[in-house]
Amino acid sequence: MVKEMEMTSPNDSSITDYYPDQNVQQSTPSSMPLIAGIFFIIAGLLGLFTWSSALALDSSMLQSVLPGDSPISVKQLQSILTTCGVIGCILSIVTLAGGIVAVKRKAWGLATIGGILGLFTIGPILLGSIISLIGLIIVIISRKDFQ
């Protein structure tokens, strides 16, 4: 008789009895932001590699590739490469940050900005820009998956 009472007790109600909206199955989020984030991280790392290589060039390396009758001096070329290298590294870091928030599905705006700036990171043989473009398209399509 005790077992019968336990089974029919009035406390057997569930939370769905009081909140009927809880019965609705939540859709599982897609993996598109994760894929886009991985693309952004790859593009950012390729950009960092490319632009840090440009920063690492010294005047003796530049002098060996610069023709003797060039209208630009080695110092000017090194200055241009240093400026472009710093800007490229900053853009690559923003692209990496966009990739990290895309993987976490947190800030859609930062992920989009990271993808846009990733287009300018170039990378080897424009590979970073192409990967960033693919990631940007995926992030824009999967906006609903971000918080």
Written account of the structure:
The chain has one domain (32-145). It has helices at 2-7, 15-18, 32-56, 59-65, 74-104, 108-118, 127-141. It contains 7 helices and no strands. It is rod-shaped, with a radius of gyration of 27 Å. The two termini are 51 Å apart. With 147 residues, it is mostly helical. The mean pLDDT is 87.
Pairing-aware structural class of the strands and helices?
Answer: mainly alpha
Topology, number of strands: 0
Mean pLDDT: 87
- Give the fraction of residues assigned to helices: 55-70%
Backbone shape: rod-shaped
Topology record:
Layout lengths: L1 H6 L7 H4 L13 H25 L2 H7 L8 H31 L3 H11 L8 H15 L6
Quick rundown:
This protein has one domain (32-145).
Overview features:
single chain, 147 residues, mainly alpha, 7 helices, 67% helix
